[in-house]
Amino acid sequence: MREMEDKMASNQDDTHDASGSRNNVENEIKRGLTVMKSIIRARDKGEKFEVHWSAEDQLIEPNGSMLASYIGFLVRQHIPITCDNWRSPELKVGKEKIWSEIQRSFHIDESRQKYCIQLAGKRLRGFRSFLSNKFLKDEEGKFEVSDKNRKRASTPAYPYKKGLTGYARYMYDTLMRGTELCNRFNFIAASRINTTFITKNPTSVMNELVDRFMVAGDNTTPSLYFLPFNSGNGGHWVLVAMDLSRLMVYYLDSLPGDWSKYPSMKKTLDAAILKFRSKKNYRNRKDITWVRVQYFDEYKSYSRAHLDEMKDELCQFIIDHRII
């Protein structure tokens, strides 16, 4: 019966054969994430699939392969690929989510939970092995591809500007290179100004901002202040740049929407800027203007070379952090 389980696992359409030849891997059909549409449609109709077991308590047809495939899909959705210890207590929530999703679509007894979770662990190990064989090893199974990827990633042909590091690089290239901007900007510690502190004591946060402004307020050159702001929404960060002399605030957010999503932040920053200008006896000529930064110097479409470059950077990240 173990052979039957292995056969079902190898036949599922979302599980990769980590031990297959490199030629087979390179020639496989490229496709997106498996979503198991038949299961989703049945679940939307309130239907569940029956699951059958052999005398040795192994999955059998009908629907055995379907459940095995679905478990492979779920484990990649709810368990991080960086996981190298399936028994880690940190995976408890993810495992519970996998089991609840299985019960939503299959008639399965609680006594089968251990079997399904163990199968999920096998699917995760198989997926990690597939990534290692495809991206990190050569035809002989050695990790020589890693050296090649490291060299290519060290001299990228195309600047990559997504993510936090990309934002910083883009900002430096656009605003600072060849200018004197480095002499007129300051950073405000994100640990002191965030949603939690503003909610608890907005007045204290405002006064701390004013004190920070006053430190550099005697300089003849107007200051530009950068504030990385933790919105508290699942750890999402935005960047706020305040030009105190021009009463301009620039808002940078990788997600749709603007500063209206965080009214307490805007109110506190506006109050701090106005109070600072009042202390310095500056005339408030106009209201503070907020501008959402929407332009990013990115490609409208990505060529094969662009995709290869990003793939190399991902491989290098995996190598450097010993993920696999």
TrEMBL record:
Entry annotated with the keyword Hydrolase: yes
Keyword terms: Hydrolase, Protease
Region listing for Disordered, in residue ranges: 1-27
One Gene Ontology molecular-function label: cysteine-type peptidase activity
SUPFAM superfamilies linked to this entry: Cysteine proteinases
InterPro entries reported for this sequence: Papain-like_cys_pep_sf, Peptidase_C48_C
KW Hydrolase (keyword) present: yes
Domain spans labelled Ubiquitin-like protease family profile: 218-293
Gene Ontology BP annotations: proteolysis
Pfam families, per database record: Peptidase_C48
Family: Belongs to the peptidase C48 family.
Protein name from the UniProt record: Ubiquitin-like protease family profile domain-containing protein
Organism: Pisum sativum
